[in-house]
Amino acid sequence: MVRLITHNLLACHAKGCTSNNFPLQFKDIQVELREAEFNSDFLRGFLPRIEWAALVDASRQLGDTSLPAEQPEMLDDDFLQKLHHVLLEIHVEEGAMICPNCHHVYPISNGIPNMLLAEHEIG
Amino acid sequence: MSRPEFQAPPEIYYGDAEAKKYTNNSRIQQIQADMTYRALELLNLPPDQPALLLDIGCGSGLSGEILDEQGHVWVGVDVAPSMLEVALEREVEGDLFLQDIGQGFGFRPGSFDGAISISVIQWLLNAETSHPTSSPPHRLQRFFTTLHAALRNPSRAVFQFYPTSDDQVQLITSMAQKAGFGGGIVVDYPNSNKARKVFLCLFVGGGGGQQVPKGLEAEGADGEEHAKFEKARERLRKKMDGKRKNIKDKEWILKKKDLYRRRGKEGVPNDSKYTGRKRRAAF
Asked: What molecular function does GO assign, one term (chain A) (predicted)?
């Protein structure tokens, strides 16, 4: 159940990988759509924390083009609905996430990403 | 039986069977729920505002369900795949990660409004291999520094855990302070063996203005001292008082006499309307 809300928070945590380690790139993914409850208060609270470019990029990778490339100033309901869909309703079930810097592969199976590191990769 | 963290590492101890057992045990569910509510209380989130929380050692999502109920969005991490599988079966709402918290988190700075963890960090106190990154201080340090970075300023993190000694408490709090956290230990019901719960309540930022909350005390002078079912026992005793039934009543005597006759014993008295009656007082 990797949703874009968590993907947008997730960087690589392997040893020595401290720059250019965000966002993780998707590879060979299978996506599932599941409806979630719309909560505009939460979205408004979360919006300042979003890395917009990374979110738009990731949503394009998952085949959703509803978000504008620039973060709009005005928060109308239509926009929040789209944001809600992209952040909370698209679930990545299978595939992998790859660090753009150290190319560590985090495999996703059954919707759960495996973030475990080998002994020599622990910081 | 010895503590679970002495028997095997968490990902092995919580195998398929143990994960199911843990999740279906209604007593564990109750305790877990109580502690989650208490942790949420200690977290002191702004009211009526949905937050993004991190559940450290989410297991099968027992505490996550309570976070859902309260309207929060959560992300859970756990090192035991079997527990996460149970969580998937239960269709919990949060995003799940298979992650060893002693290896640190990779979340961007300021990601979460708070973190809770129920009965987890005592697992960090055992070294599984002799590799330097496997020593408890190193794992605690990695855990607390990356967690400190992942939390917003200001925010709180609340951990319920089961320390075996004061040295462990000392080690954990000193590592947390080194990582930049403020705060300290909150002990609920310190005088009760059963109800005693230890919470580590950590603050990020806040300019030192945040006070460590007070632990709960037992209600009444000796509220927790009594055995659990003493009330019921007392009630039963009262009900029985003065109305104790005689065991050797007429029915019992007839049964015995019948038994003797069937066995062919001689001289068994005949039955009459006087059988089993008390003799009249002699005077």
From this structure: protein heterodimerization activity
Q: Which of B:103-142 have CB within 8 Å of A?
A: 103-108, 110-112, 129, 131, 133-134, 142
- What's the number of domains chain B is made of? 1
Residues in chain B within 8 Å Cβ distance of A51: 108
The CATH code belonging to domain A4-121 is 2.20.25.10
> Considering only alpha carbons, which residue of chain A is nearest residue B50?
A42
Q: How confident is the model at residue B78 (pLDDT cuts 50, 70, 90)?
A: very high
- A112, B84 in Cβ contact below 8 A? yes
Give the whole-angstrom CA distance, residue A54 versus residue B127: 38
What is the share, in percent, of chain A residues with pLDDT greater than 90?
A: 11
CATH of the domain at B196: 3.40.50.150
Examine residue B268 and state whether it is found in any structural domain, yes or no: no
Which residues on neighbouring strands pair with residue B6, listed in sequence order? Answer: none
pLDDT attached to residue B221: 42
Q: So where are chain A's domains?
A: 4-121
What is the reported pTM?
A: 0.79
Percent of the residues in chain A that have a pLDDT greater than 70, as a whole number: 99
